Amino acid sequence: MSDLSRRHFLKLGACVVGGACAASALPETGHAGDAVAASTLTTTLPYPRVKLVHLTDLKAGQELRLSYPDNASPISLLKFGKPVLTGMGPDQDIVAFSRYCTHMGGTLQFKADTGAFHCPLHYAMFDAQKGGLTVIGQATDNLPQVELEIDAKGDIYAVGIKGLIYGRQANVLA
Ligand code: FES
């Protein structure tokens, strides 16, 4: 194999393995329509930033039932009184989750004695102290978790959701 063909072979192999050459292989057209085509590929709509409550409105062991990102999406805001995985706030104990089961959309009930959400339909359980981890049942996805922010005044905001709310193709409806 000549030196030139060997270099070409190695470069081609790197492209196949890494896919790194795909973008550079495309011609740069510079057409105005390119920007429009790119924007139609964006399916993620911006999440609303919604004030839920103030830190002082939450007591340890309490569940507040709210909705986010719209009224058709029930969530639970929880304060555990001890640090939990992905917990927010001064005690790292505040989390929020969708109340729709990821199996078939049953409306979940939070039970303080287990620290988990329980599904009344087929008995799945999601651990609210471990990021909504599925711990038992037929659900294969963890519970979508609401992303929270707390400002300097202590107001708690919902700003996004990790995971797809059951029954939706997009969390934020157009
Ligand atoms: S709908 Fe929740 S376990 Fe089936």
Automatic annotation (TrEMBL):
Pfam families: Rieske
Domain (Rieske) ranges: 61-157
Source species of the chain: Nitrospira lenta
Gene name of this polypeptide: aioB
EC number(s) from the headed UniProt entry: 1.20.9.1
Keywords (A to Z) from UniProt: 2Fe-2S, Iron, Iron-sulfur, Metal-binding, Oxidoreductase
NCBIfam families, sorted: arsenite_ox_S
Source domain of life: Bacteria
Enzyme superclass (EC): oxidoreductase
Name of the protein this chain belongs to: Arsenite oxidase subunit AioB
